[in-house]
Amino acid sequence: MESDIKSSGNKAREKITFKENKLLDELKEVSEKHIGQLTADIKSGEISVQMYRQQVKLIDQTQQSEFDMDVYEMYQGCEVGDVDAVGDADLKDDGRIAKIMFRQDTDQLSRALDDLQLGEIDVLYEGVLDLKATPVLHDTINIRVAGDGNAARPIDVTTLVVNGTDTVVVTDCKNKSVKSFFTKTKQPGHSKLSLSSRPYGITKLKHNQVAVTLPDTSQIVTVEVNPDLVLLSTITTNKQYLGLTSPTQSTLAASVRSPPSVDILDMTGHMLRSVKPVHSGKNILQNPRFLCTTRTGNIFVSDCRSRCVLCLTPAGDVVFTYPPTGDTTLTLPWGITSTSTGDILVADSSQHSVVHLTESGQFVRNFLTADDGVLNPRGNCVDGRGHVYVCKCTLGEIKVFSCSNTV
User: Residue 85: its pLDDT value, please?
Assistant: First the structure.
């Protein structure tokens, strides 16, 4: 960050130095032209003085002559000598410089320097998301953009801060694309990356990179976020993966519907192990969809068919399931995310709600409901500014709620 700040200062100084040198070059050019004109004036004056001296000498000689013809010839010689100064013709073509001045609007310069922004220090706080507070609708992002042939259908979402720009990245399965939405230089912007097939899950790999599943073509793509989107690589997998998370910098965890499992992959798509937790002789997973990684490295899985949320260790052991067997608290769990404090937010699509669970899988409350405008939610995520993002699949929107415990 120190390097980035110094780099911003250097770039600003380089631009100022460039403008300074440009003005100096312009001054040098016009000064040389003016000096050339003044030099021509001096030369012309010297010629005139020499000519007048000759005329004075001629007049003196003529006054001593006794012939009228000599006086007449002297008069004609003086008339011929009264000509334009040397170099005047050349000066008329380019215009004669009368004065050179340096005009400067010091007030404008002062305002420009005051408005100069090298950047700002941005601090993201842990615990800024106050899940006890009443969520307030902060923004609605319509993800349909120019060029979309179909109604937008957001499935999963994540957020990044790229070069100081808050960026929302979402998968749009109907338009076979990944999209980013951001505000840059106080102007809203977006980017669209078209893909070969429908995208589904998304996870953040680095501060400016995400990975996206393409189940129809058994692929995972990595995308750079600038915040404009750039395709980095395409990873071919042996299964049609849906949900995606990144437990470590070198591994991915992905859910597959048939046969149901959560697979741990390396960054080339090679499967390291397949997790198929069993309870009473039956596979707990029936249709795993969304995944997320907790602060302790565990993996949360939402299963829409078994209507539960599982917490798995990186080795695949079951930490807990919510709700307990036989409980029907959840009816269609989809999107799932974990906060910096370890709390869990699960989107229940059929109940039009987002459920708040503790890190140990205890129900707290319905954090968002249909009264908050949450209809058929899919993917969800949180950022470091106290915002919760929820994909409204049927309306092609992302609802952004604010629940911050800081001003």
Answer: 45
> What residues contact residue 107 under an 8 Å CB cut-off, 6+ apart?
none
Q: Which residue has tokens 């390291």?
A: 272
Q: Is residue 153 within 8 Å of 168, Cβ to Cβ?
A: no
* Cα 404 from Cα 188, distance rounded (Å): 23
| Rounded Cα gap, residues 376 and 304, in angstroms | 13
Tell which residue, 235, 180, 190, 191, has the closest CA to residue 213.
235
Domains of the chain: 2-115 (no CATH), 136-402 (2.120.10.30)
Distance CA 345, CA 382 (A): 9
pLDDT tens digit sequence for 34-81: 999 899 989 999 998 998 888 888 788 777 776 777 677 767 766 655
Instruction: Please give the single-letter amino acid code of residue 393.
Output: C
Report how far residue 292's alpha carbon sits from residue 72's, in angstroms, rounded to the nearest whole number: 113
CA distance linking residue 193 with residue 401, whole number of Å? 26
> What would the DSSP string read from start to end of 327-378?
--S-SSEEEEEE-TTS-EEEEETTTTEEEEE-TTS-EEEEEE-GGGT--SEE
SS3 content of the chain, % helix, strand, coil (to 5): 25, 40, 35
pTM, two decimals, is 0.71
What pLDDT does residue 182 have? Answer: 96
Q: For residues 76 and 401, what is the distance between their CA atoms, to the nearest angstrom?
A: 100
The pLDDT value given to residue 78: 65
The Cα–Cα gap between 368 and 370 comes to 7
pLDDT tier for residue 407 given thresholds of 50, 70 and 90: very low
